[in-house]
Design a protein that fits this description.
6-stranded mixed beta sheet; Metallo-beta-lactamase, Chain A; alpha/beta
Length: about 230
């Protein structure tokens, strides 16, 4: 997995702006697009990701910092299949259908995407958001912002694949939470069987520090330019 867009910086060759995007090489899948297409493309170049190798684009939710780079991607590769949440603007969905190979709209129910990849379904009402489940030997969940609550998302994902989720990755949306709420999320993840975490983007500095304290060497650094083997 390569982090191509993040407000934290891991590699000085890459530019950090507010937002999030990762590329999962095994599936040729781009997860979200950050807030700025030009910067996303620059970071892709630095990390050796060819635009034409992308086959799938998974969008978590409608916030600008996760969809800002869509146009830049589709202008250069029209053969991408998009997985978008039903909460996205209907006008935008209709436009996207004219700009790419295929658009699959994911609703509130869990949905198999392809191979061993699933959508949690669109969760929450205030900011509806879907997360990505990778059902392999070490099951993983990748979130965009985690508005629904990282522990709640993990619970949903666990029920969908009927397995413990071992990896939690992405934005945990804890930057405005107090220490008690952060510690509650940590204890919940541990009790649910999560063994490794990579908290970044909107997780917040205090929460990242606490996750590092409690998960120790199993808490991995985020930041644009980072590469992490999802094992």
């Amino acid at each position: 997995m390569k982090i191509l867009f993040d407000n934290y910086n891991y590699n000085s060759e890459c530019k950090s702006l507010w937002g999030f995007s990762v590329y999962i090489q095994k599936y040729n899948l781009l997860f979200d697009t950050g807030s700025n297409g030009r910067v996303l493309l620059q970071n892709m170049k630095h990390k050796g990701v060819e635009i034409k190798e992308i086959k799938y684009l998974f969008i978590t939710h409608s916030h600008w910092d996760h969809i800002g780079g869509i146009d830049s991607i589709l202008e250069l590769n029209k053969e991408i299949t998009l997985f978008v949440p039903s909460s996205l603007s209907k006008h935008l969905i209709n436009d996207l259908k004219t700009l790419t190979k295929k658009v699959i709209v994911c609703g509130t129910k869990p949905q198999k995407l392809f191979d061993n990849l699933y959508s949690t379904g669109v969760l929450g009402e205030e900011m509806p958001e879907q997360s990505l489940i990778i059902d392999d030997d070490f099951p993983k969940v990748i979130t965009g912002c985690g508005h629904y609550g990282i522990q709640n998302i993990i619970k949903v994902a666990k029920k969908i694949i009927n397995k413990d989720i071992k990896w939690a990755i992405g934005g945990f949306h804890l930057m405005y939470k107090d220490e008690n709420a952060i510690l509650e999320s940590i204890k919940s993840l541990q009790s649910l069987g999560v063994q490794k975490v990579l908290p970044t983007h909107c997780t917040g500095d205090i929460a990242i520090g606490l996750y590092k304290k409690y998960f120790k060497d199993n808490c991995f650094a985020g930041g644009v330019g980072n590469e992490t083997a999802l094992k």
